[in-house]
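Hi, here's the filled form for the chain we discussed.

Project: internal
Contact: R.S.
Residues: 222
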Amino acid sequence: MTAPDIASPIVFGAAYSVYVRIARLALEEKGVAYRLVEIDVFGTAGLGADYLQRQPFGRIPAFEHDGFRLYETGAISRYVDEAFPGPAVQPRTPKGRARVNQIISILDNYAYRTLVWDIFVERVRGPANGRIADEARIAAALPRAQTCLRAIEELMDGGAFLAGPALTLADLHAAPMFAYFRRAAEGADLLARHAALARWWAAMAGRASLAATRSPLEQAGA
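And the returned structure, exactly as it came back:
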């Protein structure tokens, strides 16, 4: 990928963020040069007024391209696919797009908090920061995680990717969540029980876009 120039897109957010990484993955897969401006929503300094003008709800990412400002990850990733040349990451057919959007909705509404906050953060990040894991929270989350994995795997219907035979925004939305989830022992065990999803993750983990957007919270040797 060439270096970003003055007209290149800018992603505002933190490299550790699942949703910032989703937007970056879309840019990487399209081969679009971009700039990441680090914004830490958990930082002690808080969010400045300039950022809140970009994102009034104080979430990340925000996005700008050639004077056009945008926030909400789904809007950003769809814009990237439609505004730039490169391989399409949305199907052409209404049914194909509906399936992609269905999986993204499952990930946003049911999987993200369960896989990332209830399991990864409790099992991995909490102890890394000196906090004892909430075992009850993890135990309560595992059946919900199982439901999420089973539902997504059923929608794969034998395809190599989550929404069919080709890479789509559904895969890019899921990958950062699974990258964290599998770092918890419970997550790795549950993923291993879903053969199609395990194969999907192995293929996704080897993509250059995943390597280029690697989270600083990921340990070496994924």
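Let me know if anything looks off before we file it.
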